[in-house]
Amino acid sequence: MTILGPILMAAVMIIPIWIAKMSDDTKTIQVIDESGLFYNKLPQTANLKFKYVLTDIMKAKGNFKNENFYAILYIPSAVMTTPNTIRLISDKQPALSVKSYVETAIQKELESLKLNASGIDKELLKSIETKVNISTIKLQEGREEDSSSEVSTILGSVAGILIYIFIFMFGTQVMRGVIEEKTNRIIEVIISSVKPFQLMMGKIVGIAMVGLTQFLLWIVLTFGIVNVFQQIYPELVKFKTETNTNNVLNKNKLDKSIISNADIKSSSGEQEDVKQLFKSIGKINFGVMILAFIFYFIGGYLLYASFFAAIGSAVDNEADTQQFMLPVTIPIIFSFLMTQFIISNPDGPVAFWLSVIPLTSPIIMMVRIPFGVPYFDLILSMVLLVAGFIGSTFLAAKIYRTGILMYGKKTSYKELWKWLKY
Amino acid sequence: MDLLKVVNVSKKYSNHLALDKVSLNVPENSIFGLLGPNGAGKTTLIRIINQITGPDEGEILLSGNNLKPSDVEKIGYLPEERGLYKKMKVGEQALYLCQLKGLSKNDALKKLKYWFEKFEIQAWWDRRVEELSKGMQQKVQFIVTILHEPKLLIFDEPFSGFDPINANLIKEEIIGLKNNGSTIIFSTHNMASVEELCDNIALINKSKKILDGKVYEIKKEYKSNTFSIDCSNSENNFNIQEFLDKRFAVLSIDVKNDALKIKIKIPTEFNSNDLLKNIIPHVNIISFNEIIPTMNDIFIQRVSQDNPN
């Protein structure tokens, strides 16, 4: 997994670009325009060409198999009054992107024709169209800071997801380790040399170390592989930066060309967006962000790993873990599901409470931090998380030291409660 | 001098009393058998001695001092439920387990080498544990248990999982350890090995100690002055009752080829010589034995006496 992981991750980053490039073959659509309104009017792109022919639709259909067209676009003469009679004919289902491109192009053309017919100047209409782009400013200690809700959203979600994955992956690894020691029957050999608490903490800390190493290795290797790829295929770099920007702005290439063709948005406005985006990325306090991430990463893991260790000690095999897993996984999944809500309201009372309660704080607080969190909330949350994992470790140790020596009996919650009181 | 003293130890698990004021003295340089039916509380007692769990009442003294955490280095424990990490290499794992007991890496390596050669498993050093047979894994575990040369060794069912040849090997090693000055506590259901090995025993039943002492003294106490005589007689319709003292009771007479096997119980004021004097004039004695109860008999007798139903 250590080696395979980064390769897969790099593949996830590279292959879509690769495929996107590969499928960039030119499609030509045969246009039969009975209305005569669209001759050479439909905008072409690098991948999509139109060939206007004067032929009968029936004949074109008959010849379709012999000719190498992607599709036939049939525009009947009464298109102005009945635009829904337009047909895109092909021997296979045309791609959705092609269909919507053609739709948009015809729609624009028809609109413009109708505008002309009703005497409204197209230029006038365009000057009326207004695009508003509000800049968000964060007041911090008297200073004004440009900020970007988009960047905060992305950073918060990514941090939350990473912590979620880490807790689940390595928490269950702790649990499996404990079960393994139990089913191997090595546990009694070991705890005649070390205290059960030492063994449990050793396992938790050890797996955290393995996990962090693996995680760092993943990140380094993934970027390493992607970088090597960029060196080998420089043209990919160019393409990549372009797609990256587009991705951030949530548009794909095809859309972009339509939009620029349709002139909804001036290109200068778009550049302004990108500029502001980079500016606000620079404004995020990465020092705090990274420190907090490491803290909640480790704190959240320690909190949950001790629960997972206790579950592992209480059962004889992995199949029996189900009944105890539920109460432990619910808060993790709950906080993961709440991230969307927290992003839309990062300062509300729900966000506050979820980000200070230790069971949910590792994920929720990481989502909140990019939006700016009062120091009081942050410190309270950190103190409670430390208290939380000390408490959970204490409880887990009690279950653990009894559980590891119990065999054959299916454990109930009542039983666990008794072990807590020993 | 007692190496280990268990004084009035009680242990309660929620509503089940696992040990009820149990006291034991394990003399130094002896083999001590801890006996009892399943679920009697032996394992709980052993776990308390190993500081895996603590007693609710009472105390444990090792060489006269209360047990402390560092005493784990003075005790070697081979649990009944024993295993190894399956994916780890044999040598690596043995080394790790020995270092847990406080041995330095070099010491452990040197000693492991010696024992691996002695048990003829040196070729398995770099193999994974899961490739080993069960008996071989048991050998590794035995080595790991004794390697740090603890004063006190505790074996819980040490012979389970061994074939007779290897069981014998282990038995000889246990005797060897005793001769080298170790004290051994030995928990088993194998009564034959108890008789062969143990100097002292304690019998635990239903959380209580019901019997303890030196093996030969216990046997003496439980013998019933019964003798087994193999003899032959030329007369055809020989009746032993005619010449036997009326106070001696014949328990059984078996005819075996041309010999007779007779069991006679005599009152405690008589001894074997009195019996011999009584019968020698009438028969040719082939063999004469006192019937001494086996530990197995004593175990069954005491436990069933204790559990009336």
Could you write a compact summary of the structure shown?
Chain A contains 16 helices and 6 strands.
Could you characterize the architecture of this molecule?
The complex is a heterodimer of chains A (422) and B (309). Chain A is of the alpha/beta class. Chain A folds into 2 domains: 23-116, Periplasmic binding protein-like II (D-Maltodextrin-Binding Protein, domain 2); 147-220 and 284-421, no CATH class. Chain A has helices spanning 4-22, 57-63, 96-117, 122-128, 149-183, 187-191, 196-232, 234-248, 253-262, 267-283, 286-314, 322-344, 349-356, 361-368, 375-403, 413-421; strands at residues 27-33, 48-53, 71-75, 87-89, 136-140, 143-147. In chain A, the strands form 2 sheets. A 4-stranded mixed β-sheet of chain A has the order 2-1-3-4, covered by helices on one side. In chain A, strands 5-6 form a two-stranded antiparallel sheet. In chain A, a hairpin with a 2-residue loop joins strand 5 (136-140) and strand 6. The longest helix of chain A has 37 residues, at 196-232. The two termini of chain A are 41 Å apart. Mean pLDDT of chain A is 79; it is low at 237-267. With 309 residues, chain B is of the alpha/beta class. Chain B folds into 2 domains: 2-220, P-loop containing nucleotide triphosphate hydrolases (Rossmann fold), CATH 3.40.50.300; 224-291, Alpha-Beta Plaits, CATH 3.30.70. Chain B has 10 helices and 14 strands. In chain B, the strands form 3 sheets. Chain B has a 6-stranded mixed β-sheet with strand order 6-7-8-3-9-10, with helices on both faces. A 4-stranded antiparallel β-sheet of chain B has the order 2-1-4-5, with helices on one face. Chain B is elongated and about 75 Å long. Chains A and B meet through helix 6 of A and loops of B.
